[in-house]
Amino acid sequence: MLCTLSEILRDANERHYAVGAFNCLSLENVMGALEAAEDLRSPIILQVAEVQFPEAPLELMAPLFLRAAKLSSVPVCVHLDHGQSIETCMKAIRLGFTSVMFDGAALPFDENVDNTRLVTRMAKAAGVDVEAELGRVGDSGVDTADVFTDVEESVRFIEATGVDALAIAIGNLHGHYVHTPQLNIQRLIEIHEANRLPLVLHGGSGTSVEDFKACIHNGICKINVATAIQRGIMKAIRERMQTEPEVGYIPLKQVMIDASRDVVAEHIRLFESNSRV
Ligand code: 13P
């Protein structure tokens, strides 16, 4: 069933688990992810980021995500990840997304507030939820975060914008880690104590089990995972091609569905969102 972000995160926030937000770029990816969520009776968030539009156009992913969500027996939120402009957020809202992220983290604080507030106002009018980001989540290949989220700024930001969830920077990075990061859990605890709204961890791939557990027990309710799914699918394809070089397209599609399902299932268990619905 199709849900908004706040509907899905309410229970997670109360009962201290996280809902996985999986970047899905293909039919196989979506089918596998939903199979895992249904098998494990877990809510799930399907998302696509603006930088992924060349390979997974918003106009094509929207009907796929929405139809899959409506047909599913578990709660599914359809979310725009890292919207880079107000226009992109508006487009996703018009296409039926139930949640959008406006990523103004690279902007000066006041500009991030102004733009996020505008997106929130428009989204709320359409019954859509909003995630924003404060502090900088680093990029692949760099082994330190640029700037951690400031506690006092997070309070001002949330009050001024009215967002439903906030992505924070506590040493997490997108993409492949050079080595396993050590997240600043103390900073997470301080942000969570100052704000009771659901917090989001980006860059889920490569995080240690201990850090995942510390995150979900201290206020992280949504965890984004992209790279781990792509790597899992590629590994499965390579293995199948090695044992069966002439394997056909249709069996390979099944390999991709199964790999997507397995990686998503592994994360659902780690995030403790299984057996919740
Ligand atoms: P990873 O690719 O590191 O899992 O990050 C995903 C993400 O944060 C998408 O917004």
Q: What layout of secondary structure does this protein have?
A:
Blueprint: E1 2-3, H1 5-15, E2 19-23, H2 27-39, E3 44-49, H3 58-71, E4 76-83, H4 86-95, E5 99-102, H5 109-125, E6 129-134, H6 151-161, E7 165-168, H7 185-194, E8 199-201, H8 209-216, E9 220-225, H9 227-243, H10 249-271
Parallel strand pairs: 1-4, 2-3, 2-9, 3-4, 4-5, 5-6, 6-7, 7-8, 8-9
Helix pairs in contact: 2-3, 2-10, 4-5, 5-6, 6-7, 9-10
Bound molecules: 1,3-dihydroxyacetonephosphate (13P).
1,3-dihydroxyacetonephosphate (13P) is lined by residues 23, 49, 81-82, 174-175, 202-205, 224-228.
Helix and strand pattern: EHEHEHEHEHEHEHEHEHH
- What is the residue-mean pLDDT, rounded to a whole number? 95
Distinct small molecules: 1,3-dihydroxyacetonephosphate
- Would you count the extended β strands for me? 9
Number of domains: 1
Provide the β-strand percentage band.
15-25%
What is the terminal-to-terminal distance? 11 Å
CATH topology descriptor: TIM Barrel
Largest sheet: 8 strands, parallel, barrel
Please write the CATH class name.
Alpha Beta
CATH architecture: Alpha-Beta Barrel
Large-scale geometry: globular
Strand order of the largest sheet: 2-3-4-5-6-7-8-9
Total number of helical segments? 10
User: Which structural category fits the helices and strands?
Assistant: alpha/beta
Q: Which spans have pLDDT < 50 for at least 5 consecutive residues?
A: none
In oligomeric terms, what are we looking at?
single chain
Task: Compute the CA-based radius of gyration.
Answer: 18 Å
The CATH homologous superfamily corresponds to Aldolase class I
